[in-house]
């Protein structure tokens, strides 16, 4: 696997950090999650295949454990607000002095500097500041955020994983690590580069919801079908638009008359079920496809190869396919309990059994074992 042998410390956090760690793990990295000793609930659904060390970072002994670990690891992922790690005494300056090869990845909401750097926030706040959220709305409606995909996962976890991989590659030449500084406001803006840089193209220019790609056009829209399901319609180019009209048995429909086009297509798509329309357009290059539920996607003739399932969850396969060193999803591996691997990790660091047990009794580390 491409990242076999790479060791990653991932400080526990919400979605972006775990997603970043999941990507690295799927491609072969060994990931150790650093949990809080008082973490009694695990909301991290992306932790499969990782290990867990629960340590009290407010104690000198706990900080010493992190310093020792960082000497043995290639990558550290931390999701805290600016200044938190420095206040703990394990900021990048100190850890990079101890291990010059360390890739120290910082994944925050607002970055290390600026008036909001120490503020709390979530995906909706980050894309609001990025300039993107203002574009996501139908005409005369308030902006609608795309769940928490854009900042947490696209502009956050995925961008951070890309930065880590670039730093690892550069290290093969220099032999040195470096700081990878990602924040989700800036990452979301970068993710939206095409949207932000294309505003002078003819497809924009109107109010939100009145442009070609933001639900203004009748040929780039989601339509309800007879059975209460939906299809996506997206024939932007004229040759594909003609195929749409042919499939709908329309002799003509003005490409530029968005308002009338929507009224016509809304009525027509309600005359057949989603699957009936899918059958019609399966033989045409009209850019018309069904809106599938997550469960349906695992059974559809085209997408079923992209997914796996366990008893309760739809699991996407890794989205990047490498010909020689393919990824292997960690999703079917066990998710660690908080502190499940604390003892084994410390033994590997050279801690004696007596020392480990004393740390357990003092609450410096947490373990589920009653004895060593």
TrEMBL record:
InterPro entries linked to this entry: CoA-transferase_III, CoA-Trfase_fam_III, CoA-Trfase_III_dom3_sf, CoA-Trfase_III_dom_1_sf
Signal peptide segment: none
Pfam families per record: CoA_transf_3
Family: Belongs to the CoA-transferase III family.
PANTHER family listed in its UniProt record: ALPHA-METHYLACYL-COA RACEMASE (PTHR48228:SF5), SUCCINYL-COA--D-CITRAMALATE COA-TRANSFERASE (PTHR48228)
Name of this chain's protein: Alpha-methylacyl-CoA racemase-like
Organism encoding this protein: Nicrophorus vespilloides (Boreal carrion beetle)
Lineage per the UniProt record: Eukaryota, Metazoa, Ecdysozoa, Arthropoda, Hexapoda
């Amino acid at each position: 696997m491409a990242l076999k042998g790479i060791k990653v410390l991932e400080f526990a956090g919400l979605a972006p950090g775990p997603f970043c760690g999941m990507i690295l793990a799927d491609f072969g990295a060994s990931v150790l999650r650093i949990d809080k000793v008082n973490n009694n609930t695990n909301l991290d659904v992306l932790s499969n295949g990782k290990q867990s060390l629960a340590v009290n970072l407010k104690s000198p002994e706990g900080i010493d454990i992190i310093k020792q670990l960082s000497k043995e690891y290639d990558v550290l992922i931390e999701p805290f607000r600016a200044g938190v790690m420095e206040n703990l005494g394990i900021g990048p300056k100190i850890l990079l002095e101890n291990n010059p090869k360390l890739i120290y990845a910082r994944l925050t909401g607002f970055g290390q500097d600026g008036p909001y750097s120490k503020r709390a926030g979530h995906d909706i706040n980050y894309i609001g500041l990025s300039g993107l959220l203002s574009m996501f709305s139908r005409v005369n409606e308030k902006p609608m955020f795309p769940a928490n995909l854009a900042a947490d996962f696209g502009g956050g976890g995925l961008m951070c994983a890309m930065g880590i991989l670039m730093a690892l590659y550069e290290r093969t030449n220099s032999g040195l690590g470096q700081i990878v500084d990602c924040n989700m406001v800036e990452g979301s803006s970068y993710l939206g580069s095409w949207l932000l840089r294309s505003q002078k193209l003819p497809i924009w220019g109107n109010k939100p919801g009145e442009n070609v790609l933001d639900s203004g056009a009748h040929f780039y829209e989601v339509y309800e079908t007879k059975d209460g399901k939906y299809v996506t319609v997206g024939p932007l180019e004229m040759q594909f638009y003609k195929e749409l009209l042919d499939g709908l048995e329309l002799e003509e429909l003005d490409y530029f008359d968005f308002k009338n086009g929507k009224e016509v297509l809304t009525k027509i798509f309600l005359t057949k079920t989603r699957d009936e329309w899918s059958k019609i357009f399966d033989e045409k290059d009209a850019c018309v496809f069904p809106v599938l539920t997550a469960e349906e996607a695992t059974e559809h003739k085209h997408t079923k190869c992209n997914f796996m399932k366990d008893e309760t969850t739809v699991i996407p396969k890794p989205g990047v396919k490498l010909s020689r060193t393919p990824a292997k999803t960690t999703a079917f591996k066990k998710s660690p309990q908080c502190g499940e691997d604390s003892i084994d990790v410390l033994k590997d660091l050279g801690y004696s059994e007596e020392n480990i047990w004393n740390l357990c009794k003092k609450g410096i580390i947490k373990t589920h074992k009653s004895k060593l």
